Description:
Elements: E1 13-15, E2 22-26, H1 31-46, H2 55-67, H3 70-78, H4 86-93, E3 94-97, H5 114-129, H6 133-147, H7 155-164
Antiparallel strand pairs: 1-2, 2-3
Helix pairs in contact: 1-4, 2-3, 4-6
Amino acid sequence: MSIFASRSTSDPIPIPGVDPPATCTVRKLSGRELDTAQGDHLRATIAGRFAAHGWAAVFQRQLKAGLATDADAQHVLDDPLSGYDRHAIVKAGLLAWTITDPALPAPAADTSDDTTRAKTAAARGTVIEDLDDDALEFFAVAIMRRTKPGLFLTVDEAEQARKNAPGPSSSV
Protein backbone atom coordinates (compact mmCIF):
# COMPACT_ATOMS: atom_id res chain seq x y z
CA MET A 1 0.00 0.00 0.00
CA SER A 2 1.32 3.43 -0.90
CA ILE A 3 1.88 6.28 1.53
CA PHE A 4 0.02 8.47 -0.97
CA ALA A 5 -3.75 8.45 -0.48
CA SER A 6 -4.46 8.94 -4.17
CA ARG A 7 -2.51 5.75 -4.94
CA SER A 8 -4.34 3.63 -2.33
CA THR A 9 -7.33 2.54 -4.39
CA SER A 10 -9.34 -0.54 -3.43
CA ASP A 11 -10.37 -3.39 -5.64
CA PRO A 12 -14.12 -3.34 -6.37
CA ILE A 13 -16.09 -3.84 -3.14
CA PRO A 14 -19.59 -5.38 -3.33
CA ILE A 15 -22.27 -2.97 -2.10
CA PRO A 16 -24.79 -4.84 0.08
CA GLY A 17 -28.52 -4.52 -0.55
CA VAL A 18 -28.27 -3.16 -4.09
CA ASP A 19 -30.24 -4.85 -6.85
CA PRO A 20 -28.79 -5.61 -9.34
CA PRO A 21 -25.50 -6.28 -7.55
CA ALA A 22 -23.12 -3.34 -7.66
CA THR A 23 -19.62 -2.49 -6.49
CA CYS A 24 -17.74 0.58 -5.36
CA THR A 25 -14.12 1.67 -5.38
CA VAL A 26 -12.71 3.67 -2.48
CA ARG A 27 -9.35 5.07 -1.49
CA LYS A 28 -7.46 5.97 1.64
CA LEU A 29 -8.00 9.54 2.91
CA SER A 30 -5.11 11.97 2.94
CA GLY A 31 -4.05 13.51 6.23
CA ARG A 32 -5.80 16.76 5.33
CA GLU A 33 -9.01 14.94 4.41
CA LEU A 34 -8.91 13.05 7.71
CA ASP A 35 -8.42 16.32 9.59
CA THR A 36 -11.37 17.81 7.66
CA ALA A 37 -13.58 14.87 8.66
CA GLN A 38 -12.64 15.41 12.32
CA GLY A 39 -13.12 19.17 12.05
CA ASP A 40 -16.54 18.73 10.47
CA HIS A 41 -17.52 16.44 13.36
CA LEU A 42 -16.21 18.99 15.87
CA ARG A 43 -18.19 21.85 14.28
CA ALA A 44 -21.36 19.74 14.18
CA THR A 45 -20.90 18.82 17.85
CA ILE A 46 -20.40 22.45 18.86
CA ALA A 47 -23.48 23.38 16.86
CA GLY A 48 -25.42 20.73 18.77
CA ARG A 49 -25.64 18.23 15.92
CA PHE A 50 -23.25 15.71 17.38
CA ALA A 51 -18.96 15.82 15.10
CA ALA A 52 -9.24 19.18 13.81
CA HIS A 53 -6.58 16.97 14.24
CA GLY A 54 -6.91 14.91 17.40
CA TRP A 55 -10.59 15.75 17.89
CA ALA A 56 -11.67 12.10 17.78
CA ALA A 57 -9.53 11.28 20.84
CA VAL A 58 -10.73 14.39 22.72
CA PHE A 59 -14.35 13.53 21.93
CA GLN A 60 -13.92 10.00 23.23
CA ARG A 61 -12.21 11.22 26.43
CA GLN A 62 -15.17 13.57 27.04
CA LEU A 63 -17.56 10.65 26.76
CA LYS A 64 -15.50 8.67 29.25
CA ALA A 65 -15.66 11.65 31.63
CA GLY A 66 -19.40 11.20 32.06
CA LEU A 67 -21.14 13.19 29.36
CA ALA A 68 -23.28 10.14 28.58
CA THR A 69 -24.47 6.96 30.27
CA ASP A 70 -21.97 4.13 30.49
CA ALA A 71 -23.81 2.19 27.78
CA ASP A 72 -23.96 5.25 25.49
CA ALA A 73 -20.30 5.99 26.04
CA GLN A 74 -19.26 2.39 25.40
CA HIS A 75 -21.28 2.27 22.18
CA VAL A 76 -19.62 5.45 20.91
CA LEU A 77 -16.18 4.36 22.09
CA ASP A 78 -16.56 1.07 20.24
CA ASP A 79 -17.54 2.85 17.01
CA PRO A 80 -14.40 3.39 14.90
CA LEU A 81 -16.08 6.35 13.18
CA SER A 82 -16.57 8.29 16.44
CA GLY A 83 -15.14 11.76 16.06
CA TYR A 84 -15.26 11.72 12.26
CA ASP A 85 -17.92 13.15 9.94
CA ARG A 86 -19.17 10.38 7.66
CA HIS A 87 -20.19 12.74 4.85
CA ALA A 88 -16.69 14.25 4.72
CA ILE A 89 -15.17 10.76 4.68
CA VAL A 90 -17.38 9.53 1.85
CA LYS A 91 -17.08 12.71 -0.23
CA ALA A 92 -13.30 12.40 -0.15
CA GLY A 93 -12.86 8.64 -0.38
CA LEU A 94 -15.63 7.24 -2.60
CA LEU A 95 -14.17 7.13 -6.09
CA ALA A 96 -16.60 5.14 -8.21
CA TRP A 97 -19.66 2.92 -8.14
CA THR A 98 -21.41 0.61 -10.57
CA ILE A 99 -24.95 1.42 -9.45
CA THR A 100 -27.04 1.86 -12.56
CA ASP A 101 -29.78 4.39 -11.96
CA PRO A 102 -30.75 6.97 -14.57
CA ALA A 103 -31.21 9.55 -11.81
CA LEU A 104 -27.57 9.22 -10.73
CA PRO A 105 -24.76 10.93 -12.57
CA ALA A 106 -22.15 8.44 -13.69
CA PRO A 107 -18.77 8.91 -12.05
CA ALA A 108 -16.54 10.65 -14.57
CA ALA A 109 -13.07 9.52 -15.50
CA ASP A 110 -10.15 11.58 -14.32
CA THR A 111 -9.81 14.71 -16.35
CA SER A 112 -7.53 17.69 -16.31
CA ASP A 113 -10.42 20.00 -17.24
CA ASP A 114 -11.17 22.04 -14.10
CA THR A 115 -14.77 22.75 -15.14
CA THR A 116 -15.51 19.05 -15.73
CA ARG A 117 -13.81 18.12 -12.48
CA ALA A 118 -15.87 20.71 -10.55
CA LYS A 119 -19.14 19.51 -12.13
CA THR A 120 -18.25 15.89 -11.35
CA ALA A 121 -17.43 16.75 -7.73
CA ALA A 122 -20.69 18.68 -7.35
CA ALA A 123 -22.72 15.82 -8.85
CA ARG A 124 -20.98 13.26 -6.64
CA GLY A 125 -21.60 15.48 -3.59
CA THR A 126 -25.31 15.61 -4.44
CA VAL A 127 -25.47 11.82 -4.72
CA ILE A 128 -23.63 11.38 -1.42
CA GLU A 129 -26.03 13.76 0.33
CA ASP A 130 -28.89 11.57 -0.93
CA LEU A 131 -27.51 8.30 0.51
CA ASP A 132 -29.51 6.61 3.22
CA ASP A 133 -27.86 6.10 6.60
CA ASP A 134 -26.90 2.46 6.05
CA ALA A 135 -25.25 3.18 2.69
CA LEU A 136 -23.40 6.19 4.13
CA GLU A 137 -22.16 4.03 7.01
CA PHE A 138 -21.08 1.24 4.62
CA PHE A 139 -19.02 3.59 2.44
CA ALA A 140 -17.51 5.44 5.43
CA VAL A 141 -16.45 2.16 7.07
CA ALA A 142 -14.94 0.85 3.81
CA ILE A 143 -12.93 4.06 3.43
CA MET A 144 -11.81 4.19 7.06
CA ARG A 145 -10.73 0.52 6.97
CA ARG A 146 -8.22 1.62 4.29
CA THR A 147 -7.30 4.85 6.04
CA LYS A 148 -7.07 3.77 9.70
CA PRO A 149 -7.18 -0.05 9.85
CA GLY A 150 -6.10 0.02 13.51
CA LEU A 151 -9.49 1.48 14.47
CA PHE A 152 -11.11 -1.81 13.47
CA LEU A 153 -8.93 -4.15 15.51
CA THR A 154 -10.41 -6.11 18.38
CA VAL A 155 -8.81 -5.68 21.81
CA ASP A 156 -6.87 -8.92 21.31
CA GLU A 157 -5.76 -7.93 17.81
CA ALA A 158 -4.63 -4.50 19.04
CA GLU A 159 -2.63 -6.12 21.85
CA GLN A 160 -1.02 -8.55 19.41
CA ALA A 161 -0.15 -5.69 17.04
CA ARG A 162 1.37 -3.75 19.94
CA LYS A 163 3.50 -6.75 20.91
CA ASN A 164 4.65 -7.27 17.31
CA ALA A 165 5.41 -3.60 16.67
CA PRO A 166 9.06 -2.81 16.26
CA GLY A 167 10.46 -1.33 19.44
CA PRO A 168 12.95 1.51 19.75
CA SER A 169 16.35 0.55 18.48
CA SER A 170 19.08 0.25 21.10
CA SER A 171 21.85 0.75 18.55
CA VAL A 172 22.83 4.36 18.17
